[in-house]
Specification:
The protein is an alpha/beta fold and about 180 residues long. It contains six helices and five strands; from the N terminus they run ββαβααββααα. The chain has a single domain, classed as Ribonuclease H-like superfamily/Ribonuclease H (Nucleotidyltransferase, domain 5, 2-Layer Sandwich). The chain has a five-stranded mixed sheet with strand order 3-2-1-4-5.
Length: about 180
């Protein structure tokens, strides 16, 4: 069976898209152990990201932009991004292992695994792909909107980010339905 691990990154930030990845590993051993992207250093995440693409793993990425998040809510947007990621795998998988407690609206065998990004290598790989992809997007947004410091906090609600929103108002990529942004 061709089972894809699926995870997302970017549910909590005040700005930018939510990004998901679906990964079918090919059996090669990574240079470092795969783990939940939040538990490994940025340097190791970058190396694993590059290794995953070079290893021949099958990877699909999906994202949902801030305006859609505002329209449908972050939960639905996360599930939509994950479904897009699965549909973007070049050869469709026969089943899914999804981080969390929800399955997707796709006609595939699926299992939701709470804490799966720390337990199952393919979900860990998806976590890494989603996180690095999103971080790189936020670095690009930092070049467009340097006053917000997106390269540092990646859109998460840090004190510096909240202060920048108050000083400059929301940027075009802020999630206007999120507390800390709406009403400013």
């Amino acid at each position: 069976m061709r089972i894809a691990g699926v995870d997302e990154a970017g549910r909590g930030p005040l700005a930018g898209p939510v990004v998901a990845a679906a990964v079918i590993l090919n059996g090669e051993n990574p240079p470092f152990p795969l783990a939940d992207s939040k538990t490994i250093s940025a340097r190791k995440r970058e190396k694993l990201f590059d290794w995953l693409y070079a290893s021949g793993a099958e990877i699909g990425v999906g994202l949902v932009e801030h305006d859609v998040i505002d329209r449908i809510n972050i939960h639905k947007a996360s599930l939509l991004a994950m479904a897009k990621a699965v549909l973007n795998i070049p050869t469709p998988p026969s089943g899914l292992l999804i981080d969390g407690k929800f399955t997707l609206d796709l006609k595939l065998q699926q299992t939701a695994v709470i804490g799966g990004d720390g337990k199952i290598d393919s979900i860990s790989a998806a976590s890494i792909i989603a996180k690095v992809t999103r971080d790189r997007l936020m670095q690009e947004y930092d070049r467009l909107y340097p006053q917000y410091g997106f390269a540092g906090h990646k859109g998460y609600p840090t004190a510096a980010h909240k202060k920048a929103i108050i000083e400059h108002g929301p940027s075009p990529i802020h999630r206007k339905s999120f507390r800390g942004v709406k009403g400013i």
